[in-house]
Amino acid sequence: MSIYKKLAEARVKLQESKITKSGLNKFAGFKYYELADFLPTLNKINFELGICTKFEIKDNNAFLTVFDTEKQDDSIIFNVPYVQSKIKGSTEIQELGGSITYLRRYLLLIAFEITDGDVVDAQNPKDNEKVEDTKNKEKAIKMIFSLIKEEDDDALTAQLEYYKRKDLGECTEEELKKIYKYFKDMKK
Q1: Most buried of the four, 56, 91, 162, 163, by CB within 10 Å?
Q2: How far apart are the first and last CA of the chain?
Q3: What is the percent of the chain with per-residue pLDDT over 70, rounded to a whole number?
Q4: What is the mean pLDDT of the chain?
């Protein structure tokens, strides 16, 4: 079996395994896959199919190579540009660790075609409420994030508590407009 066939089979097996998202971006209001959500299942599938992955960083790029363990010259390489993470209150080594974790996760998502969270996943309309226009909510959330900085985290948390919401994705369009106005006024 070719490396491409093995990778295709791994993608299908992983998809059928019904992995669940445990990561939560509380401010943007969506769930996402953490490495621990899919890596144990993926490693088992890869072992069964005779493939393995290797992550590395070189020349300002991050690479994930999928190898055929039976024909080691057969491989598929995925890459993305290296980007240094910026984590509030962290040391350089913690930022490096954050970068490695994010890059590794994104490369695995790409290689194994794992779909991750987006703003639509954050929608939690109540049964009796009208479902609002997702595009307008996405735009409003992006506009809010364009105004706030990391030091505004407490203010955003206070706004969410005021509206009794866990995240921006749960807010109505009207609430998002008011939160945007609050931060816009705060910047003046």
Answers
A1: 163
A2: 63
A3: 85
A4: 82
Q: Three-state SS string across the chain, please?
A: CCHHHHHHHHHHHHHHCCCCCCEEECCCCEEECCHHHHHHHHHHHHHHHCEEEEEEEECCEEEEEEEECCCCCCEEEEEEECCCCCCCCCCHHHHHHHHHHHHHHHHHHHHCCCCCCCHHHHCCCCCCCCCCCHHHHHHHHHHHHHHCCHHHHHHHHHHHHHCCCCCHHHCCHHHHHHHHHHHHHHHC
> In this structure, are residues 133 and 173 in contact, taking their beta carbons and an 8 Å threshold?
yes
Contact indicator for 51, 11 with CB cutoff of 8 Å: no
Q: Kindly give, in sequence order, each residue whose CB lies less than 8 Å from that of residue 130, ignoring residues fewer than 6 positions away.
A: none
Q: Which residue has the higher pLDDT, 46 or 139?
A: 46
Q: Which of 50, 85, 78 is nearest to 62 (CA)?
A: 78
Q: pTM for the whole thing?
A: 0.62
d(CA 98, CA 104): 10
Distance CA 67, CA 54 (A): 8
Sign of the Cα torsion 44, 48, 49, 50 reads positive
- Nearest residue to 144 (alpha-carbon basis) of 100, 116, 186, 106: 186
Residue 178, Cβ neighbours under 10 Å: how many? Answer: 14
